[in-house]
Amino acid sequence: MKPNLTSINKALIIIEKEMMAQVEKRQSYLSTLSESERKSAINLIQYLTLRSKDIRSLQNELHEKGLSSLASSESHIRHQLQEIRQRLGATYKPDELDPCSYAYSSNILAERSTSLFGTKDSNDLPHLMVTFDSGFAHNYAMIKSLLLNGMNIARINCAHDDETVWSQMVQKIKKACDKTGKSCKIYFDLAGPKIRTKLIGKGKHRKKVKVEEGQLIWLAYDMQYFNHHDIVINPTEEGLLDKIKKGDRVYFDDGIIKSIAEIILPEGVGIRISRIASEKKLIKSEKGINFPDTELGISPLTEHDLACLPFILENADLVGMSFVRNPTDISQLSTYLNDSAKGKNVNIVLKIETPEAVKNLPDLLLEGLKHKVFGIMIARGDLAVEIGFERMGEIQEEILWICESAHVPVIWATQVLENLNKAGIATRSEITDAGHAAAAECVMINKGEHTIEVIESLKDILQRTAEHRNKKRFIFRPLNIAKGFIG
Predict the structure, then answer these.
(1) If pLDDT is split at 50, 70 and 90, which confidence band does 341 have?
(2) N or C: which end of the chain has fewer CB within 10 A?
(3) 156 lies in some domain
(4) Is residue 436's pLDDT more than 60?
(5) Mean pLDDT lowest for which of 164-168, 174-178, 465-469?
(6) Are 119 and 74 members of one domain?
(7) First to last CA, the chain
(8) Could you say which of 73, 106, 139 is where a domain stops?
(9) Above pLDDT 70, what percent of the chain?
(10) DSSP secondary structure, 269-330, as one string
(11) What gap in Å lies between CA 37 and CA 371, rounded to an integer?
(12) Is 120 helix (H, G, I), strand (E, B) or coil?
């Protein structure tokens, strides 16, 4: 070997040894998993071992020598490393080769996606999930049309409507499936602990109040220490105010209004408004509040969620857990489902929508792998508010990579072709965003006036993207530009 190839091989040996050491440290956990899930967990641990290092120089050296730079090997990371080492002269016994080859990993992810999301018309496209509007309960023709145009999963949000409306939706979905011969999974989203504004001071009766940048307003549970001129907001979650620290950020209405906690008193928390990203400078009742810097310690399963679960168990194929933060949250829902399911299998989808969930993603995946099939949803609405919009592009990619390393299907959710859905025309940026969604196993569309047009456009965008990309790996079909030039 030339000296530079020798140094490359030595670097790969060190990485492989550390991968094996990290796996060995977790043998007690791995021994609890079935064979397929254990292979996935091991590959996840090995991938995270690699990604805990800066290997950019090594990747450049590998690329210069015409070898894999490990850049698109999430699903089979140690096997790929072993393949490189074999090209450099290393030898492995058959039982020393990691079983997660590219072929095996592609197959297991496809199998789990089908188990979770059902069958689909084209293997080249992700599954399509459509959020149901209240009006769908009385619109069989719309549901039938959605099925015929490619809907694979119907999403019902338990934050809206009630069991009567949900039941009408379910009945019409099943009827449409029978009539069309198409299959459709039914997914229920648990509402979770959505913290909302309740104006109890100024603006209470109008349910909205004008605010300005630089203004001090208050979070409190009552008006005992305030007068009717003060803007006071009850965050509707008992015990929350005790956990806010000076300097913590507080966002209102999907991040439109940003404020900073400035005064911490027993009677309330004073927050200073630092940004209003809207011409209408209003805080309204029943709008969401986000606390990205505050460890809230709130259970993701609310009383409302628990009341919904019996109906969900009877009617759903999948259930989405909102605001999951740690493995204990998953255990809580799993225990309830196991105790109440009476033999019916309802698969769990974990919604990643807080900084804590992002930080704990490896542990969430390892806990999830105790189940034969589960999924991850990148819930980009709340997640963007919580982590900052400028970080969203980076974080959504990281979630995709890490989930692929665990062979866990991912749902790309929130505001996909949103402008097209609401106004009938897409923006340039959301077309690009929709193309990125092809890296996920499922794409979720929100409710809107132009849902059929969104499905048609999305399928076209995803099909074109799939001809150039498989997950993170770019593939080369002939380019018309190139063919025109070469002749």
Answers:
(1) low
(2) C
(3) yes
(4) yes
(5) 465-469
(6) no
(7) 42
(8) 106
(9) 99
(10) EEEEEEEE-SSS-EEETT-BEE-TT------S--HHHHHHHHHHHHH-SEEEETT--SHHHH
(11) 8
(12) coil
Task: Using alpha carbons, select from 151, 148, 222 the residue that is nearest to residue 179.
Answer: 148
Q: Which of 290, 307, 341 is the last residue of a domain?
A: 290
Answer whether 248's CB lies under 8 Å from 291's CB: yes
Could you tell me if 155 and 267 lie in one domain?
no
The angle, 0 to 180 degrees and rounded to 10, between the axes of the packed helices 392-405 and 380-387 is 120
Residues 65 and 213 in one domain: no
Question: Is a pLDDT exceeding 90 seen at residue 261?
Answer: yes
CATH number at residue 185: 3.20.20.60
Confirm if 155 and 129 have CB atoms less than 8 A apart. Answer: yes
Nearest CA to 440 out of 408, 406, 478, 481 is that of 408
Structure tokens at 107: 């197959």
Domain co-membership, 93 together with 217: no
Q: Do both 175 and 254 map to the same domain?
A: no
333 within domain boundaries: yes
Residue 149, Cβ density class (10 Å: 0-12 exposed, 13-18 middle, ≥19 buried): middle
> Could you tell me how many residues make up the chain?
487
Q: Say which amino acid occupies 318.
A: L
Looking only at the bridges linking them, the beta strands covering 268-276 and 216-219 are: antiparallel
**Is residue 481 in some structural domain?**
no
Facing residues of 131 across strands? 155
Torsion over CA of 10, 11, 14 and 17, rounded to 10 degrees? -90
Residues 434 and 450 in one domain: yes
Number of domains in the chain: 3
Q: What pLDDT, on a 0 to 100 scale, did the predictor assign at position 296?
A: 87
The SS3 of residue 199 is: strand
- The b/e string for 453-473 (b: 16+ C-beta within 10 A; e otherwise) is bbbebbbebbeebbeebebee
Q: What's the chain's average pLDDT?
A: 92
Specify whether 363 is located in the same domain as 448.
yes
Q: State whether residue 407 is helix, strand or coil.
A: coil
Mean pLDDT computed over 335-359 = 87
- Whether residue 458 sits in one domain with residue 394: yes
Q: Give the integer Cα–Cα distance in Å for 365 and 334.
A: 14
Report the C-alpha gap between 309 and 323 in whole angstroms: 16
Taking only Cα atoms into account, the Rg of the chain, rounded to an integer number of angstroms, comes to: 25
Identify the CATH number of the domain in which residue 252 sits: 2.40.33.10
Q: Over the stretch 269-328, which tens digit does the pLDDT of each residue have?
A: 999 999 999 998 999 999 999 999 998 888 899 999 999 999 999 999 999 999 999 999
Q: Specify if 397 maps to a domain.
A: yes
pLDDT at 130: 95
Give the residue among 271, 279, 263, 205 at the shortest CA–CA distance from 235. 271
Per the structure, the complete domain to which residue 206 belongs is given by 198-290
Q: What is the pLDDT of residues 129-159, one digit of tens each?
A: 999 999 999 999 999 999 999 999 999 999 8
